[in-house]
Hints:
The structure is a homodimer. Chain A is an alpha+beta fold.
Amino acid sequence: MKKYLEILKKCPLFFGIEEEQLLRMLHCLGARVSPFDKKYTVFAEGNPAKYIGIVLSGSVQIIQVDYYGNRSILSEMHESQVFAEAFACGEVESLPVTVVANEPSEVMFIECGHILHTCENNCGFHQQLIFNLMKDLAAKTISFHQRIEIVSKRSTREKLMTYLMFEAKKVGKSSFEIPFDRQELADYLEVDRSGLSAEISKLRSEGILESRKNHFELKR
Amino acid sequence: MKKYLEILKKCPLFFGIEEEQLLRMLHCLGARVSPFDKKYTVFAEGNPAKYIGIVLSGSVQIIQVDYYGNRSILSEMHESQVFAEAFACGEVESLPVTVVANEPSEVMFIECGHILHTCENNCGFHQQLIFNLMKDLAAKTISFHQRIEIVSKRSTREKLMTYLMFEAKKVGKSSFEIPFDRQELADYLEVDRSGLSAEISKLRSEGILESRKNHFELKR
DNA sequence: ATGAATCTGTTGAAAATTCAACAGAAAAGG
DNA sequence: CCTTTTCTGTTGAATTTTCAACAGATTCAT
């Protein structure tokens, strides 16, 4: 576990917990780590939602596929980010999403029950852990909220601009990279890929933005 | 406060807490109650998000208005339900939503900081309260997730059917009432009202559902 | 470096959504 | 009980999105 310490220290779930305590705690929580090749399934839809996942390296995508086969990307999680915690905490009987590795990745699993119910050793850090988990859930709710704000927009242009403006605000610059290729961006915005490309061209020709591949710059 | 006990006992935030302890706790938390007439603002967008709200009577809507004036209903909260907790817990500097009374209503406010940080009296119930709050956040995240699943659908028909199927599943019957009128449903699904009406008629003529006002019944 | 595979932008036709306007039904208010 | 207001369903035109197909770029693998 030691080699993951630097990443875990950045994980919001372990905020305010010292290194040595963290190691003991991981043992106590029964944390385990698995590697995944690109496109491999980390959690499959329908699985029981018992485990919280933490990305140790690489990245994973949370996706949903409806009965028409339309794929929708709910979010993408990177190093030190936590996923599936809402389903695990909410004790849902089966996951409504699929999680797949976006590149070769390592993921840590922690059984949520072990976090929620203080252990016999009475580590004393469960309180902090629970508190952190709550903060994390609040943040996640807010980010879902943002996602709803984006896909709620009626037109491709509005969805795209809303998304880009959030991204720009996030990094505090009008020039930034997005973590999606065109098809993924279209999936994320819930629009047609070709229509999205066309809209980007149009915005470019109107001087509203510049872009090359996944780099964007918002003008004025 | 006493007259609200029956409702508060049903509030998930106070699960597992006894009546008398609840009363003491409310005092300790500095809870206060305000009445609101229909359409009056409970929280305004841009306000600091310090308070958690609990609906004691009536109902409130969480809405968002974009710069084109399009109104979008994020959710509707009824008696004993908690709202704005994610923003309060997440300590966001300004609310991204507006909350308005949907009918004459009473709302209880609790400063979130008072929940998160144990008080000098050391009530001993803060732990339970924090735990409940976490469960609530998890549930909310899941319901947002459901909302995303609905508005992510590309067509009016799919959005409507996905929504109706969730509602049917929720009450465990194929016959149920929805809490929206047509315009509100259209806002919730993010579609055009007249197009929604047309789609409902079409589904009715295809024998897929029956409806009268806000009562729906899914056939086969 | 070369060929294969994937990604991106374009296009035009088909389909769906939005918009505006209206009339009948239902609800609210006096 | 009557009037006024709000709500709902319909329609057709305008707009937008989706779909399918393709060709030039780019990336990947050997």
